[in-house]
Amino acid sequence: MRTKAKKFTLCICALIMALSCSSCHAAEEAVAPQENAVSAAPEVSPVYLNVESAVASGFDESPDWAPRPDAMAVADGNMDTRWASGYVDGEWIYLDFGKPKTITAIVIKWEQAYAADFEILTSDDAETWKSLMLLKSQKGGTSNIKFAPITARYIKVVGVKRANEDWGISIWEIEPYGPKAQNPGELPKEEKFKSSEEKVDLEAKREELLKKIGDQIVASPGELTQEEFQKGVNYTSWRSDELDGAMSDCSLIYLSQVGVKHVALMAVWYQADAASKKIYTDPEKTTNDESLGHAINTMHALGMKVMLKPHVDLADEEMRTNIIPSEEWFASYKEFILHNARLAEKYNVELLCIGTELSNTTISRWNDLWLDIIQEIRKVYKGKLTYAANWDEYETVSFWPEVDFIGMDAYFPLTEEANPPKETLIAGWETNADKIEKWLTDSKLDKPVIFTEVGYDTMEGSNKQPWRVLPTLTKFKESQDEQSNCLEALFLVLSKRPWFKGFYWWNYFPRPDIGPLGYTLRGKKGEKILTEWFNKL
Description:
Largest sheet: 9 strands, antiparallel
Number of domains: 2
Distance between the termini: 27 Å
Oligomer: single chain
Structural class: alpha/beta
CATH class of the largest domain: Alpha Beta
Shape: elongated
Helix content: 25-40%
Low-confidence stretches: 3-43
Mean pLDDT: 91
């Protein structure tokens, strides 16, 4: 149970391929309505103008979704990094060439959070600015803007009006260009930015993988047994087609290389609020069946087993633990979960999670309706079943005897300290493990336990309330040490308990730029610990 950042959709974007092709044409049409526009000038073989530094007015500070605060992210030639502003109009970013250069074009590659109206300005001293053009009613994507030659050391982009008042503005790249004759020593973009060896390797492996998969449904790498240790991560997206693209494929290849053998694939449907009785798909945020199928095929082709993990989120952003059950709600839930069960059977999914953190619905009062749902699932799906109980819910779930694994979203508090010693974290996990073990004995439940979710964000104090996304760097200090120490303490304690059969870290994203201060381990100290222990077990 994590408290979601209100504006999480800021960070879930169109895929790389869309930015490089279909959106370009739309962007060219979009630059037409403008004020103070400089007339376009023909350009032959422009060169990329090297940027020495960049300065931004501010940064998005929501840790689980925002990129790392780095203004130079827009000038690094990397479409996996970006600048994301605060949530007000008027945010700006400027590039410093280090010396005056002649500019004839600028390309702005917007993330989903774009500026509907934006202004481009130039300066020689970064204090006095001259307006180059004001563009209105833009549509995002890629803005390709040409103008008569102008010489300046600095060029600024100001987000005059955001496309969505709930978001800031976010830019993947700002590419300045100019004539080679007036800019000696500058290079074409392709020579300036060469893909890293890692990226080239991932792309090559993706091509091989796509040939292997073809149009077929890929077979499972093997049945999920109750004895094997599940070495997993949660893989999360809130976009309808994000899992069907190159960026997601490369991220899954990356996960296979760091030792991940099991993936919990999240599938999110919605209901309006806690009292609503209707569960529905959102055309933009619910991952469509084709994309889920592609992701499952990719995971299987990489030798990874899959848990399909459907979630019900509330459109008003209240927590799902507060859902108010009724017979009408259960009827809608039955349709929702059976749809996912049929999908799981079609794509050879090894484990289906029949629910996530539905605390109000899993008590004995509603047991008969859950038993009916499980019976109907068994008719259409032949794999293993689990349920993801919230960390404070597992003792009251009424239907544990009917599933194959006891699942827990294990956001147990460990200490009351920020950045405590590893020994203190180990003691915290020992206390929680002892409590689970006593409950298993008292309940006479002879079933393996898996942590369907467990995680800590990358800030000091995350062990105290792991379910809570710590809001901003203004109040909390980044700490990879606390995150990695919590993970290692978990391994040291739980690997010795015979009833514990694995976990799924919350979480990894298809996009590598998301969440450097949040729960993801990608590129952090904790990822090394994850790999080392997965190799040991």
